[in-house]
Amino acid sequence: GKDLSSLNANSRRLMKKDFQIVFQDPFGSLSPRQTVGEIIGEGLRVHESELNKIERESEIFAALEEVELDSGTMDRYPHEFSGGQRQRVAVARALAVEPSVLLLDEPLSALDLKLRQHMRAELRHIQRMTGVTFIYITHDQGEALTMSDRVAVFDDGRIQQLAPPDELYESPQNSFVAQFIGENNTLMGSVTSINGESCQVQVDGGDQVQALKANVEGVGSRTTLSLRPERVEVNPEPGKYPNLFGARIEELIFLGDHIRTRASVCGRNDFIVKIPNATQHTILQEGDMVKFGWSVEDCRALDVFEGV
Q1: I need a surface site. Which of 150, 209, 245, 248 has the fewest CB within 10 A?
Q2: What is the mean pLDDT of the chain?
Q3: Quick one: 174 exposed, middle or buried, by C-beta within 10 A (0-12, 13-18, 19+)?
């Protein structure tokens, strides 16, 4: 709720402690010649100059405790820590001055997969415990969806959508967001009719598809149909879905909890369906002819984004 664009230089200097940053490379952002205590204490000396030595040490201990590092790490150097521990030190340094906002610039990209997954949970735990607003920059959709209360999707410097993760995934406002977040099937076509909240679309393959009128200009306009792979059912009961089309199974890939199925349908040969790992996958074979069905609500008619 604060407009910072009109602040003068002096006001910005006073507010610097309110905005702290954790960089992408945890090692490069920590001075190798300083101990952990000196690294964290440096910010306190700058922003909390009125603190005496005992008070400053107490604040350092508190910052370490927030990131679950014990006071015994005070006299150690960054090179003695693992990547995850160094990143915790960087977070502790930023949190020590009690900022209003902590900006994290792809802080986990330099870590291996297992450690990155662990640190995701750690950072979310720290945020909830401290109550500090985290602005987390990432190109990893998994991080964005699992860690955030709200996600802003940018394209060419503009926010395309700002929403909670579930809303972003389930109700993308345009085709860029739909294709950027999660896996998504797209069918290009033209709107032939509109009926309340739904519309009829003739896809380029010739089929008529019923969809939710999420973001279309009107009858005759071009649209991109967006459909998540997990919302498609193979060989559903007759009459269950208004959208029912013949499909040919092109490829089956076993991925443990589901079978990733590539098929030809509605004029596309790259249509993906995620079939839960149940008995069905043992029946399907590559080359089989089946039926694909999906609901109107799960198929969103969106604007055409030419850049994807």
Answers
A1: 150
A2: 86
A3: buried
How large is the average pLDDT for residues 140-163? Answer: 91
Query: CA-CA distance, 186 to 144, in Å (whole number)?
Result: 22
DSSP H or E segment with residue 306: none
Distance CA 263, CA 294 (A): 15
Q: What are phi and psi of 112, to 5 degrees?
A: -75, 165
Give the β-pairing of 158-163 and 185-195. Answer: unpaired
| pLDDT for the residue 103 | 92
Q: Are 105 and 25 in contact (CB under 8 A)?
A: no
Question: Residue 43 is which amino acid?
Answer: G
Whole-model pTM: value is 0.75
In terms of DSSP bridges, do strands 133-137 and 101-105 run parallel, antiparallel, or are they unpaired? parallel
Exposed / middle / buried, residue 213 (Cβ in 10 Å: 0-12, 13-18, 19+): buried
Give 198-207 pLDDT, tens digit per residue.
999 999 989 9
Two tokens, residue 44: 């306190």
